[in-house]
Amino acid sequence: MSQFNFENELNSVLRMDAPMSKGPSIRWQRKEECNASVNSSLNISTASKTPMKNVNRSVNNPKTPSTGSGSKTPKSQGKSKTPAKAPKTPSGGDRFIPNRNATQFDLGHFKIMNDGKGDNPELLSPSQKEFQKVMSENLNGADIMSNKIISYKNKAPSAPEGYQNNLRVLYSSCKSPVSTAKKTTRNIPQFPERILDAPDIVDDYYLNLLDWSVTNQLAVCLGGSVYLWNAESGDINQLMQVESQEDYIGAVSWVKEGNYLALGTSSGEVQLWDVTAGKRLRNMPGHASRVGSLAWNSYILSSGSRSGSIHHHDVRVANHHIGTLNGHTQEVCGLQWSPDGRHLASGGNDNVLNIWPAHIGSLVSETSPIYTFTQHQAAVKALAWCPWQPNLLASGGGTADRHIRFWNCSTGTCAQSVDTKSQVCALLWSKDYKELISSHGFALNQLTIWKYPSLTKVSELTGHTARVLHMAMSPDGSTVVSAGADETLRLWKCFAVDDDKKKKQQQKSSSKDSSRVLSMTSKIR
Amino acid sequence: MAATATQNAITLKGSTEIVSEFFSFGINSILYQRGIYPPETFTRQQKYGLTLLVTTDDALKNYLNEVISQVKEWLQQMTVKKLVVVIKDIDTKEVFERWQFDVECDKSVLSDGKPREKSEKEINKEICSVLRQITASVTFLPLLESACAFDLLVYTDKDLEVPDSWGEDGPQFIANSEEVRLRSFTTLLHKVDAMVAYKKTD
């Protein structure tokens, strides 16, 4: 049958050492053969005698009258139309019309039948065998034939679960020094608006040394003293200083109203200060070791300690200690109440993130967390509740983890996560944009603004020369202050809202409301 | 005088001891330097005038001891040709690095049994430079991005009787690799050439 012709011919070609069965056939023979094969195998009119077919039929005979490449035929040069061009058939159409005459059935058959048994050793010529041998020697080593390669059947124990090559942490973070941030229409200043000195700021990942009040005062702990910087006037006041040389302040937190400041000290005390009077109102001891995190929920002040316990203090009553949460085995370094006051998120150096229920008003001493998330591979310090989506919490892990994770605290699932390639020190959500900002350590010591929920980088703010330990947001939400271990505070106006836009929005909301609001705005103007 | 003379003589047993000890420290160094196991599971040890890190993990120690004691036996019989440390991805099994130690044996000692003359100090100096190179190679080897495991391959004579606890394996070559020859050392009975091959990063 014709479909074997090609195979047989090919075999005879490949076997160079085999006796030549026949030379290239004469042209008329080929022509006849061709026509006959088409006739016999395909029930198709053979009217079109395509000389092209011979090209595919016989490898022995590479002379192709159709290509015209050899310029053996002066005729084809003279004539503009070569038979192969076949201008009558529509060639440029968008439809594929199979042409049985042009289809190489015997080649197709050969390919299908020979699939997978291409390297039949019998068919190899001696030179090919030699070639294969050399290749295998090259691939498997020259002495593969004379050697045995053996290995011990019991394989080596694998590294402990969750272990990550330290070098990876070290090197992969510098892989993309060029920021991959996407351009946005909003202009984000790449340089800090202001740089303030923060001498003696404690370079400790586990503390929370920065907070900005609604009254526009920034509280900063520098070693053993607390300074207040008035963001409007630029005045600096020293609020207090600890008596002992060894002690320092580990945490600050403003009450929501902005008139009281809570401090956590290295000796385990929680203090309450009236900033207008500059006086200490209360001292609430109780922790066994230093207090590195504080969070307010109206009159409840929660404090996290190095001992791993979290205390709730009711600051109104004499017997302030109203509850203890024991969910961490190591230092509590992140503590945040949700905006609605229903959940408390706490992150510890034990890589655990706990979500606690609120039990305000009831004296509950022993509660267990609603959820315990253990996905982080390092200390969880950076915590931030989303202002526009209730129960959405963002948390960032330390050097060995480097992920920001997003948690749905009503279902207890991890909604998203992103590898930041650097230690996450602090996280803040923007009030005006659907964005959040994270501050990082090695290698770039940058602040990164992320779009949520797409988690694309909007911008990267660099400038700090050491890790950016803390962040706080101005009451209007336009400015972020970052405190670095390089002893500087930098103010970034990265969430500035266009004034016109804001006015328009205000007008919109006011026109919707009743006349009472209108009268209010008229009063302002 | 007699004491120094015996110290400079290297017998087959002594040579085997030296080479297998080198393998033990060499493998430990590779595992530490390439971060295959957590660095906190290693402890410092003074050897060859260097501070070398050796594992404290019991399971790993057992494994290495068993392999090396077997290799030692073959070293003595002079049937070992190569020892290869293969570093590969735990999940995909893709080979990232191959640390190859070619062993050339002077088989004439099997018949004549004569010790060779070379001072231990000199050998240690050579070993020291090989181990230094292993440590230094971290600087040019590409980063192992994913979690990796290692395997030890031993090339032996074709006619060797393989113990039950050992099985035949493939050479586990790296596709598209770059090779760096390291130094070698010799006890005059065993000559060890070191080489590292790693996956080319494009």
Automatic annotation (TrEMBL), chain A:
<comment type="pathway">
    <text>Protein modification; protein ubiquitination.</text>
</comment>
<dbReference type="InterPro" id="IPR033010">
    <property type="entry name" value="Cdc20/Fizzy"/>
</dbReference>
<feature type="compositionally biased region" description="Polar residues">
    <location>
        <begin position="1"/>
        <end position="11"/>
    </location>
</feature>
<dbReference type="InterPro" id="IPR036322">
    <property type="entry name" value="WD40_repeat_dom_sf"/>
</dbReference>
<keyword id="KW-0677">Repeat</keyword>
<feature type="compositionally biased region" description="Polar residues">
    <location>
        <begin position="36"/>
        <end position="77"/>
    </location>
</feature>
<keyword id="KW-0131">Cell cycle</keyword>
<dbReference type="InterPro" id="IPR056150">
    <property type="entry name" value="WD40_CDC20-Fz"/>
</dbReference>
<comment type="similarity">
    <text>Belongs to the WD repeat CDC20/Fizzy family.</text>
</comment>
<dbReference type="GO" id="GO:0005680">
    <property type="term" value="C:anaphase-promoting complex"/>
</dbReference>
<feature type="region of interest" description="Disordered">
    <location>
        <begin position="1"/>
        <end position="100"/>
    </location>
</feature>
<keyword id="KW-0132">Cell division</keyword>
<feature type="compositionally biased region" description="Polar residues">
    <location>
        <begin position="516"/>
        <end position="525"/>
    </location>
</feature>
<keyword id="KW-0498">Mitosis</keyword>
<feature type="domain" description="CDC20/Fizzy WD40">
    <location>
        <begin position="196"/>
        <end position="492"/>
    </location>
</feature>
<dbReference type="InterPro" id="IPR015943">
    <property type="entry name" value="WD40/YVTN_repeat-like_dom_sf"/>
</dbReference>
<feature type="compositionally biased region" description="Low complexity">
    <location>
        <begin position="79"/>
        <end position="92"/>
    </location>
</feature>
<feature type="repeat" description="WD">
    <location>
        <begin position="325"/>
        <end position="366"/>
    </location>
</feature>
<dbReference type="GO" id="GO:0051301">
    <property type="term" value="P:cell division"/>
</dbReference>
<dbReference type="InterPro" id="IPR001680">
    <property type="entry name" value="WD40_rpt"/>
</dbReference>
<comment type="subunit">
    <text>Component of a complex with CDC20, CDC27, SPATC1 and TUBG1. Interacts with NEUROD2. Interacts with dimeric MAD2L1 in its closed conformation form. Interacts with BUB1B. The phosphorylated form interacts with APC/C. Interacts with NINL. May interact with MAD2L2. Interacts with CDK5RAP2. Interacts with SIRT2. Interacts with isoform 1 of NEK2. Interacts with HSF1 (via phosphorylated form); this interaction occurs in mitosis in a MAD2L1-dependent manner and prevents PLK1-stimulated degradation of HSF1 by blocking the recruitment of the SCF(BTRC) ubiquitin ligase complex.</text>
</comment>
<keyword id="KW-0853">WD repeat</keyword>
UniProtKB/TrEMBL annotation, chain B:
<dbReference type="Pfam" id="PF02301">
    <property type="entry name" value="HORMA"/>
</dbReference>
<comment type="similarity">
    <text>Belongs to the MAD2 family.</text>
</comment>
<dbReference type="InterPro" id="IPR036570">
    <property type="entry name" value="HORMA_dom_sf"/>
</dbReference>
<keyword id="KW-0498">Mitosis</keyword>
<keyword id="KW-0132">Cell division</keyword>
<feature type="domain" description="HORMA">
    <location>
        <begin position="13"/>
        <end position="196"/>
    </location>
</feature>
<dbReference type="InterPro" id="IPR003511">
    <property type="entry name" value="HORMA_dom"/>
</dbReference>
<dbReference type="InterPro" id="IPR045091">
    <property type="entry name" value="Mad2-like"/>
</dbReference>
<dbReference type="GO" id="GO:0005654">
    <property type="term" value="C:nucleoplasm"/>
</dbReference>
<dbReference type="GO" id="GO:0051301">
    <property type="term" value="P:cell division"/>
</dbReference>
<protein>
    <recommendedName>
        <fullName>Mitotic spindle assembly checkpoint protein MAD2A</fullName>
    </recommendedName>
</protein>
<dbReference type="GO" id="GO:1990728">
    <property type="term" value="C:mitotic spindle assembly checkpoint MAD1-MAD2 complex"/>
</dbReference>
<keyword id="KW-0539">Nucleus</keyword>
<keyword id="KW-0131">Cell cycle</keyword>
<dbReference type="GO" id="GO:0007094">
    <property type="term" value="P:mitotic spindle assembly checkpoint signaling"/>
</dbReference>
<dbReference type="GO" id="GO:0000776">
    <property type="term" value="C:kinetochore"/>
</dbReference>
